[in-house]
Write a structure and sequence with these properties.
Elements (H helix, E strand, L loop, with lengths): L1 E7 L10 H15 L4 E8 L5 H8 L5 E4 L5 H8 L15 H19 L9 E6 L9
Parallel strand pairs: 1-2, 1-4, 2-3
Length: about 140
């Protein structure tokens, strides 16, 4: 079975500075539990501060990794005169630009995978944040 894994976004989350490393352990465990499966990993992040850690963990697994500065969505929103209060609940702790960054990095991870001939004919595609969505446990 061939499984593609696309990772995206910030390495850690706003509640934990170890979430990215814990997510890596989850992925490593998945791979180790399934030695007969073929795994390929693509990762996209705009988390420049965590670039070294991302590379140290995932490059030995053969991952294709791109870490680069992402668009300044706050400026884009301001220049576009988007009335964000119409889209964000008043009690939300996240800015509208965070949602755009989230979606943008997911899109870039999938594009990175789709550009690779190694991505063809996968039985499964797993798309996940680096922290494997662990923000829900905090």
């Amino acid at each position: 079975m061939k499984i593609n894994i696309c990772l995206y976004g910030r390495f850690n989350n706003r509640l934990s500075q170890t979430a990215g490393a814990e997510g890596y352990q989850e992925i490593k465990s998945l791979i180790n539990r399934n030695p007969d499966f073929e795994f390929r990993i693509w990762a996209y992040s705009n988390d420049l501060q965590s670039q070294e850690e991302i590379r140290q963990l995932y490059e030995p697994m053969g991952a294709t990794i791109v870490v680069e500065e992402g668009p300044d969505f706050k400026s884009i929103i301001n220049e576009s005169k988007i009335e964000v209060e119409k889209f964000v609940p008043p009690d939300s702790s996240r800015g509208f630009e965070t949602t755009f960054a989230f979606l943008y990095s997911r899109k870039k991870a999938l594009e990175l995978m789709n550009q690779s001939p190694d991505s063809a004919h996968a039985d499964w595609i797993i798309v996940s944040r680096f922290d494997s969505g662990q923000i829900d446990r905090f």
